[in-house]
Design brief:
The protein is an alpha/beta fold. The chain folds into two domains: 2-263, Vaccinia Virus protein VP39 (Rossmann fold, 3-Layer(aba) Sandwich); 268-328. The protein is 41% helix and 23% strand. It has eleven helices and twelve strands. It has helices spanning 2-8, 26-43, 59-68, 81-90, 128-141, 171-176, 206-215, 230-237, 259-263, 269-292, 302-324; strands at 49-53, 73-78, 96-100, 114-120, 142-153, 163-164, 167-169, 184-190, 196-202, 218-226, 242-244, 251-258. The strands form three sheets. A seven-stranded mixed sheet has the order 3-2-1-4-5-12-10, with helices on both faces. The chain has a three-stranded antiparallel sheet with strand order 7-8-9. It has a two-stranded antiparallel ribbon with strand order 6-11. β2 (73-78), α4 and β3 form a beta-alpha-beta unit. α2 packs parallel to α3. The longest helix is centred in the last third of the chain and has 24 residues, at 269-292. It is globular, with a radius of gyration of 20 Å. The two termini are 36 Å apart.
């Protein structure tokens, strides 16, 4: 991971990520901002211990420190020396500290020390094996009742042929890849305040992420699709920056808990019921599609059904069987 981190986040690119500038890219406007609101509304409480993985120059981490209050503790983990220096210099709070660490290796943290683990735009900078190790570390440092929230690129982001001047990727490289898993897709991101920087997404399918989550002993309890909307894009970057809008979500938010939390019946009932409801809907839709036209069974909602099927088998199969009377 160090080679990619050093290539993307160094002394030359640091200006694009310091202070509020990290919120003025596409990933800040349509990703970090709504995730910080979600954390404030649903996840982080006063007094929580929060670990922010891949903290970068520290601005979102500083915002989280404000959510935990004086009785909370927030620790940002960052590998890039340039980013770490910027974070320590410019993002200061009594309850906030930063540590150097590779999030794909053992973290410099004790077992079951965190109420919340966050990661803003980090999972797609990891190869699959690295992502698996990171998630295992998340499971290790989370308290039994803790939750993890990750913002990352959406698995379907490159499935539509969009053309935006403020966010561009080599979509042909993605389309031409036979085995897309772990394919590096290079891009550029423009900042509202001026300038642009290189970005990279290492592609992971939805099924690959779900399997890695399960193998780490975690459970996906909620996911949210985040879209780039035309009105905000025109307001922020101008109409001339928009040639063709994405028809798929660009960013993805995952909420994870430890598998023991679900097994012991402590998971958020609303999130779990939402998963079960979606599972039922997918089963019903797929059955209807199959009965209407056998050829259609290979298409949507088949892909969604396969994801839910895998998730139910890996995570909450016994629970689904008890609640729904089905055998996933």
């Amino acid at each position: 991971m160090s080679a990619l981190v050093n290539a993307l986040y160094n002394s030359e690119s640091i200006q694009q990520w310091q202070h509020e500038r990290t919120m003025l890219h596409s990933s800040g406007i349509w990703g970090r901002k709504p995730v910080l609101e979600y954390l404030a509304d649903k996840i982080v409480k006063a007094g929580d211990v929060v670990i922010d993985l891949g903290a970068g120059a520290g601005y979102p981490t500083l915002r989280i420190a404000g959510l935990t209050g004086a009785t909370g503790t927030v620790i940002g983990i960052e590998l890039s020396d340039a980013m770490l220096e910027a974070a320590r210099s410019h993002c200061r709070a009594a309850n906030l500290s930063f540590r150097r660490g590779d999030i794909a290796q053992r973290l410099p943290l004790e077992d079951e020390c965190a109420d919340v683990v966050t990661g803003f735009m980090v999972l797609h900078n990891l190869r699959r094996a690295e992502m698996c190790r990171t998630l295992c570390e998340v499971e290790r440092v989370l308290k039994p009742s803790g939750r993890a929230v990750f913002l990352t690129m959406h698995p379907d982001a490159f499935e539509s042929q969009w053309d935006l001047q403020f966010l561009s990727y080599d979509l042909e490289r993605y389309s031409d890849a036979v085995d897309k898993e772990d394919t590096e897709v290079l891009g550029r991101a423009r900042n509202i305040a001026g300038g642009e920087n290189a970005i990279t997404t290492i592609y992971h399918s939805r099924g690959s992420v779900v399997e890695a989550v399960s193998d780490a002993g975690l459970v996906l309890t909620d996911e949210r699709d985040l879209w780039i909307d035309l009105e905000t894009a025109a307001q922020m970057f101008g109409n001339g920056s928009i040639r063709r809008m994405p028809t798929t979500p660009t960013y993805w938010v995952l909420t994870l808990v430890k598998s023991g939390m679900v097994a012991n019946g402590h998971a958020d009932a609303v999130l779990l019921d939402s998963f079960i409801s979606e599972y039922q809907t997918a089963v019903s839709e797929r059955q209807t599609a199959f009965e209407s036209s056998p050829q259609r069974s290979a298409f949507y909602p088949g892909n969604r059904f396969r994801f839910l099927k895998l998730a139910s088998q890996r995570f909450v199969g016994p629970l689904l069987k008890a609640r729904l009377g089905v055998d996933p």
